[in-house]
Design brief:
Length: 204
């Protein structure tokens, strides 16, 4: 069992305790555990699906739309997430959901090995939350408009996930890494998209 630091349990320890605790596991329960970091944990959950390098045929668009709606709440200055009660009551205890959460736990643990507080004073402040919301909105929209079956949604989504992990772990280095990955993904989407349009134009 991992030892807690002097600053309290790590993100992975909090998530593991929640997964092992008795009772029904719902999105609302998860938000209660992470409180002010609820936006970041939900962004990781939602954008983690399109970040998987596999064709989805547009099936992940619903996750990207929900991510934008949540990011807009950050942009307008909300400290707590508002979700319809039906969404808050959505259970995460099915076999698929449990497998995904366990995989997420492993990913967070891996990032924690290399993480340490960097520029911690920047986090959980109104200006940086605004920027966080704007960046996640931009990357989610980029992932949404990626051509189906192209895999071009992967890098913008992965960038959003790593930025959100940086916010969760209060490590600015991860935020920068996520920004770079996301920017490369958006650039590739634009370049390859333009090339495809030019190729189609040449046919006519």
């Amino acid at each position: 069992m991992e030892q807690e630091s002097d600053e309290g349990p790590s993100v992975s320890q909090e998530l593991e305790r929640w997964l092992k605790s008795p009772g029904t596991k719902t999105i609302g329960n998860l938000l209660d555990v992470f409180e002010e970091k609820s936006f970041a944990i939900l962004f990781v959950l939602l954008m983690g699906v399109p970040a998987i390098p596999a064709p989805t045929g547009g099936a992940t668009h619903v996750f990207e739309v929900i991510t934008v709606l949540l990011a807009l709440q950050l942009i307008v200055g909300r400290d707590e997430i508002w979700l319809p009660q039906r969404w808050r009551d959505k259970e995460l205890s099915g076999p698929r959901q449990k497998k995904f959460l366990e995989r997420l736990l492993g990913v967070i643990r891996w990032f924690e090995k290399f993480s340490k507080p960097r520029f911690r004073f920047l986090f959980n402040r109104r200006p940086t939350n605004l920027i966080f919301g704007l960046v996640i909105t931009g990357l989610s929209i980029a992932a949404f408009f990626a051509p189906p079956f192209s895999g071009l949604d992967t890098l913008p989504a992965l960038g959003a996930v790593i930025i959100s992990l940086g916010v969760l772990l209060e490590d600015f280095a991860f935020v920068v890494a996520g920004l770079i990955i996301g920017a490369v993904g958006v650039a590739l989407e634009i370049i390859l998209g333009k090339a495809a349009v030019d190729a189609i134009s040449d046919l006519f």
